[in-house]
Design a protein that fits this description.
Elements: E1 19-22, E2 28-30, E3 35-43, E4 50-51, E5 65-73, E6 82-84, H1 85-90, H2 92-101, H3 104-129, H4 137-171, H5 185-209, H6 211-236, E7 249-259, E8 265-273, E9 276-285, E10 287-290, E11 294-297, E12 303-309, E13 313-320, E14 324-329, H7 332-346, H8 370-385, H9 412-436, H10 442-484
Length: about 500
């Protein structure tokens, strides 16, 4: 860093060789004017960093160990964000690059959701192969999430173009290919904060887009976890019984006390399929022993009723032919689950038992966001180059003769319309590719295609009008400047 005549403290007004810069108020202060206070802090056992407050400033871990540290504070605004001016100026390039790279955070939200979706689909396929027939809405909800995800990637792409446009305008105010002085720091710091605000907003908006499908996916995950638990319990009893090939496994209820007609009360596990009830009793005498499985066809069950009393608790009575009853003693919560399960088995039109256990095999295990990823990478690469692009001075384009070349400059409206038009055409191409890959339904494809085509036509008309008006204004300005002897920058002609 070259000699800077502005290296003086804003409090004592002395010129110092070592100056601190406050990132909040933009002031510069010497070491003698900086306030140092002994502050109660916390120590992070994860990264060994001492932070103000209970949360680690580096890794985000919640700290429980107390510590003390001398904290430097700004004498003007009491901020702790103080940096050596030399390090601050030397780190501006990396700070800008790190800020632009954080655009990936929005993409990481989408990537994390897609990975979670893949795990859910793979688990669902595994359970359907094991012929678990409960919760057919898993398939329909996953298909709905696929369509939602495609819509989200389209909206994220359109939002990326708008964010890129804002960051592009702000980045043009930066220039890191020349010597930087202290008096430029507040302006550069403000610009970097504006860029960081756009980046954070992009990430937060995408996170909001994913909130509803993430909740739906979580509900599907809970149902699959329940079915996975049932699967493990069916596997444990595979040496005692095995459901028939056409049977669909429904649920498992452990620790059930069941009394069959002309038999005493026994404790065991109740396995439910869409065809039969299997009861596996077990006995405890030093070790646990399992008895012989009893099977009751669902077709034998006439009806189910609930009986409750303060002394004996809740009971579920299953009526079978010859006026016999199977009595199940359990908690109120289990009685409700059993009533729900039997209601499903007696009324299959309720939509809780699948009709095609192989439907999941047609579902893709991954969600496609490659086009958005490519666009994010391309946009980040372009933005990183802006502060390092050498600007060509206007004098280089001046002509020495009277036949000066009239250059038409595009207005901001024309530039913005061109960006929006390119984004709309990209959206149309992505729609066609997604439809060809069968990642969206025909209904979504045709509705989105018509809207996108209409928007492209509208933007093309607006762009033509804007170009005509911009061209007329630029030509008139150039003619006026030519005959009045001045340029657009106000400099006289030679």
């Amino acid at each position: 860093m070259v000699y800077d005549p502005d290296r003086k403290c804003l409090k004592c007004y002395k010129r110092q060789g070592f100056i601190f810069y406050c990132e909040d108020c933009g002031g510069t202060f010497c070491n003698d004017c900086i306030v140092s206070e002994k502050t109660d802090c916390t120590y992070c056992s994860n990264c060994s960093h001492i932070s103000v407050g209970s949360k680690c400033e580096k890794c985000g871990n919640v700290n429980h160990l107390s510590a003390t540290k001398k904290i430097r504070k700004c004498p003007m605004c009491s901020s702790t964000k103080l940096k050596d001016v030399k390090k601050k100026i030397g780190g501006l390039t990396n700070e800008f690059i790190d800020t632009v790279n954080r655009i990936y955070n929005g993409l990481n939200h989408i990537k994390g959701f897609a990975d979670n979706y893949s795990d859910i689909v793979n688990l669902a396929k595994q359970l359907r192969r094991e012929r678990f027939g409960l919760y057919p809405n898993i398939e329909t909800n996953l298909l709905h999430i696929q369509n939602q995800f495609f819509e989200i990637t389209q909206r994220a792409t359109e939002l990326l173009d708008k964010v890129y446009q804002q960051i592009h305008q702000d980045s043009q105010l930066l220039s890191f290919n020349q010597n930087l002085t202290i008096n430029k720091l507040p302006h550069i710091d403000k610009t970097l904060k504006m860029i960081n605000t756009h980046v954070i907003s992009y990430s937060n908006i995408i996170n909001d887009f994913l909130e509803k499908p993430r909740l739906e996916l979580s509900e599907i995950g809970e149902k699959l976890t329940e079915l996975k638990d049932y699967s493990l319990q069916f596997d444990e009893a595979s040496d005692k019984f095995e459901p028939e090939l056409l049977e669909l496994k429904i649920a498992v209820f452990p620790n059930m006390k069941i009394t069959f007609p002309k038999d005493r009360k026994r404790t065991g596990i109740l396995y439910v399929t869409n065809k039969q009830l299997y009861f596996l009793p077990y006995f405890k005498f030093i070790f646990r022993f399992r008895g012989k499985v009893k099977a009751i066809p669902i077709s034998m069950i006439r009806d189910v009723e609930t009986k409750s009393s303060k002394i004996f608790g809740s009971q579920l009575l299953i009526n079978i032919p010859d006026k016999n009853q199977i009595k199940i003693k359990c908690s109120d919560a289990v009685v409700d689950r059993l009533n729900f399960t039997f209601g499903i088995l007696f009324n299959e039109n309720e939509g809780y038992v699948i009709t095609d256990p192989y439907m999941m095999e047609e579902y893709r295990s991954s969600l496609n966001y490659s086009l958005l990823q490519e666009k994010v990478e391309r946009r980040i690469k372009d933005l990183k180059q802006i502060p390092f692009t050498k600007t060509i001075p206007l004098q280089q384009f001046r002509q020495n003769d009277d036949t000066r070349r009239f250059l038409v400059q595009e207005s901001e409206d024309v530039k913005n319309l061109k960006i929006e038009l390119r984004a709309a055409k990209d959206t149309l191409r992505e729609l066609i590719k997604a439809f060809n890959d069968r990642s969206i339904t025909p209904e979504v494809y045709f509705s989105r295609r018509e809207k996108t085509k209409h928007r492209i036509l509208t933007l093309e008309d607006e762009l033509k009008d804007a170009q005509r008006s911009s061209m007329g204004f630029s030509r008139l300005r150039d003619f006026v400047n030519h005959y009045t002897g001045t340029y657009t920058d106000g400099q006289p002609r030679r």
